[in-house]
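Quick illustration, no need to memorize.
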Amino acid sequence: MTDLSSLTQMFNQNKISRRQFLTDMSALGLAAAVSPAMLPGTARASEPKRGGRFIMGCTGGSTTDSMDPGTLTSNMNYSINWQIRNSLVEIDHNFKPIPELAESWDSSPDAKVWRFKLRKGVEFHNGKTMTAEDVIFTINHHRGEKSKSVVKPYLKSVENIKADGKYEVIFELSGGSADFPFILGDHHLTICPAGTKGREWEKGIGTGGYILEKWEPGVKAFATRNPNYWKEGRAFFDEIETLSIVDTNARTNALKTGQIHYMDRVELKTASLMKRMPGINVTATTGTAHYSIPMIVDQTPYSDNNVRMALKLAVNREELLKQVLRGYGELGNDHPIAPVNQYFAKNLEQRKYDPDKAKFYMKKAGMLDHVFNLHAADAAFAGAVDAAILIKEQAKKAGITINVVREPDDGYWSNVWTKKEWCMCYWTGRPTEDMMFSLAYASGAPWNDTHWKNKRFNNLLIDARAELDTGKRRQMYLEMQEICRNDGGTIVPMCNQMVEASSDKLAHGPIAGNMPMDGFRNTERWWFKS
């Protein structure tokens, strides 16, 4: 980086921290020439003010949704969950774990025993004081024998949880886990009152900055500020209204007309136009998000890696990045680890569009005459149907026939994803390699949407998790990314920036890239200027 504009771009994309930004500015002799008002983040920030109703239009939402945190699957519900609840650990905008309900933590030298000290005096919305009992109950809810929680694989190594008094919790693991604080910062692992069950989940009782007043699954939620919120300098709005608006045009029109103040997943075709609209701010944040096209590998013909390799080679990623993402992203390489992750395999050869090789592999599989059904809906991601149609045309050059099956937006995640043999998908990603791999690529993981199993990969996953030597750990994760690329059942054509839009009446600091909506915490971190 050699100039102010490059540094500013890096900062706004969360590729460098504020501290690094200022350090590099000083090194270039530019710091003195830049006023605080020009600094990224602070340019948008103002003195926080309380008040107002913040209305969001979000993707996702289904009538089958629940506020059981183990079942959350959409942006809408992730946001509501963190409006009303907190985790032990918060992931900040620099991808670092910081204290939330836990005020501190430490581990044994082998990272097998972790002790978390809890904040005292934190109350649930029902007036109950949070203690170690609630933390233990919550974690066990996800790791129980009958649990169907999507984060159960994260907690597989937890052998025992015990309290040391009312405000300390000790986790005993079967093996070392250097990333354990990151795990407890996951957006599913929000702390709930001990004993919560059945319909009680829908009450949304938590310790969060807002109290759930009304909840219509798949439609909307309404919450009011928690007058006893324990966090200082957070949760500034009086009220939060969260609406499920799956259609991109409907979300856009709602923002234009002032019916909502924020929308996720801006239609990239119109992003440049929205940037020029008065009263609207558009942000593009680089994080761990990526698009994928999973093939269920225990079904014919995807059980044959020749078929999988052919389809990977039949995708023109450059064209998809240009046409679907409008340049708001980077090329994917058939593994889920993003360039912002610590152990990203930057030297792994980038897969390229090669119709001749694709035809070779498909012929080797004896499947050139097969018609491949690719299931798609824009509920997967904005432009998913267009992307599927582009892939269909790209594959023709390899002699591969693809039939695009258009699915309804409503119920896509429950009726299509993990059910149909090949479909469009979207991942927000995770801040660490272990979390992403454990959730979606480990053998038997509930969100392993391809049913893929690779013995070498699974052994490396366990070994890397416990390895405290960062050099050795890096080599393991590099190999795992290569295994995914060459053997996995997932096509990852591109890593997208999170392009979102909001009213210029809102203010905030640097935007986190670990999840959409400022790490799903914009309701807590943002405020109205007046």
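Residues 9-20, 29-43 have pLDDT under 50 and may be disordered.
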